[in-house]
């Protein structure tokens, strides 16, 4: 029996849970330059949900829940490893991050592709990669 591939068209959004909603909201808005699409508070769950659009059109859902468990390890926990954002100017990204008081890891070169990249963490330690397209 032959099956057809799923009719997928792309990534709709990425969802993250934060332990400090105001701090994470500031980071994604002011450091990464996201735009607010919608913001909701659900009293019955004591939970915020912030829908964001990152530069480049990536949608991010930022959730808060009371006392979420910490990420098991960095970054080799089973499951999603990191969020990778594409850029055409990694040096400008690094300069902007530093101006916001965020120190990314040293820039490295991918041995397989020759592209440059670096990692930083959001306020909860979620690893974010900035990957320069050649």
Concise summary:
It is built from two helices and eight strands; from the N terminus they run βαββββαβββ. It has helices spanning 21-31, 90-99; strands spanning 14-18, 35-42, 47-53, 59-64, 83-87, 108-109, 116-121, 127-132.
N to C succession of SSEs: EHEEEEHEEE
Number of strands: 8
- What is the radius of gyration? 17 Å
Q: Give me the secondary-structure category.
A: alpha/beta
**Which stretches are low in confidence, meaning pLDDT under 50 for 5 or more residues running?**
none
**CATH-assigned homologous superfamily:** 2,3-Dihydroxybiphenyl 1,2-Dioxygenase, domain 1
Indicate the CATH topology. Answer: 2,3-Dihydroxybiphenyl 1,2-Dioxygenase, domain 1
Identify the overall geometry. Answer: globular
Mean pLDDT: 89
Strand composition percent: 25-35%
Question: What's the number of structural domains?
Answer: 1
Q: Major sheet: size, sense and barrel closure?
A: 4 strands, mixed
């Amino acid at each position: 029996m032959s099956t057809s591939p799923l009719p997928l068209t792309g990534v709709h959004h990425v969802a993250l849970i934060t332990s400090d909603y105001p701090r994470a909201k500031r980071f994604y808005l002011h450091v990464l330059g996201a735009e607010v699409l919608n913001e909701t508070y659900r009293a019955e769950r004591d939970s915020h949900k912030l829908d964001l659009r990152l530069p480049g059109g990536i949608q991010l859902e930022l959730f808060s829940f009371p006392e979420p468990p910490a990420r098991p390890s960095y970054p080799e926990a089973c499951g999603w490893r990191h969020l990778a954002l594409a850029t055409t100017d990694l040096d400008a990204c690094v300069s902007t991050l530093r101006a916001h008081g965020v120190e990314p890891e040293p820039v490295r070169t991918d041995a397989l592709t020759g592209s440059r990249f670096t990692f930083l963490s959001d306020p909860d330690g979620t690893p974010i990669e900035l990957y320069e397209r050649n």
